[in-house]
Input
Amino acid sequence: MQLDVDLNSRELKNWLKLTQVPNFSVSSLKKLKQKCAVGLPELFTLSKNSLVEVGFNHKQIEVILHPNMSILDVSLRWLNKAHNRFLLHFDHPSYPSLLKQISSPPPLIYGYGDPKHLNNYQIAIVGSRAPSPQGKENAKFFASRLSECGWTITSGLAHGIDGMSHQGALLGGCTTIAVLGTAIDKMYPRRHIKLADKILQNNGVIISEFAPNSPGRPEYFPRRNRIISGLSIGTLIIEAAIKSGSLITARYALEQNREVFALPGNIHNPMSAGCHHLIQQGAKLVTCIEDINEEFTQLILPAPSKKVDESEKNMSQSLASDKLLASVDFEITPLDIVAQRSGIKVADVMSQLLEYELRGLVIGVPGGYIKLGRK
Output
């Protein structure tokens, strides 16, 4: 996606140079301009003595006077290699407005897709990398239904809840945005490369603050969480341990004055402990998408892409009174217990539950079946 800007402009090159300056951020640049009337254009024209006078240290001065031009070349070559790539600096008109409001916005955003979607109304959905079957289903379901309502779903492309949220958003028909914790040219995890391709094929966006060829570091993943929450009006947590990246995202959302939602779960499941902690701390308990939508009634979302027809509504009503389905819990229910509760022979139970599994109503797991909730 070639933007209306000279891709090799001095302004873009200055931002690429700025990212090389150690311990110097967008907020540092703002302070420098307020105190010394030195903005980005002037910064790279100052002499060594002038840089000392305005407060730069030796390492910073060396980078400002002698930036690594090969790093610039790598970024610009990546950008110009394909038509669906973009590179936004903080002052670019397409830079997402919500992200500008956070305390540490990325100076540059590398991306694939159409950058205009970064300004869509977004709900972030994050959670465990190793969720329960019910957690996976909840992520997919909530993402799908929120997407149908016109929300753009934002997550981190990770295993577990993140990946299921992107898949659900694709089913819902609206845009989904993936924020990487790696260099823009290194899709991670590798098993989600096909999912990443599908996101882009369906009008989605994939972004990273890390330049091409940047080495991976463990701290990059929690760092990218501030971008996930920063792009979003609200963040929904689905299955998270007390000490997890998802709770880091929730903390960022609170610091950014954004809404935090949490899905409750089984009190015996450690993956629900983080959600329960958030609810105790004031996050909104969510059981259906209306719990989220009612917080944003002032927003005008894009028209829903899907509508539930009358036959689907009637099917849902009949399932609600289904004796066999009612005999399956939202936790693992042994086959003999299902048969006992429903009064149906085991062979018939197995046959009907297989049909229900194909329809996405239950899932077979070691030890029995779990009902997949629909809210």
Remarks:
- The mean pLDDT is 90.
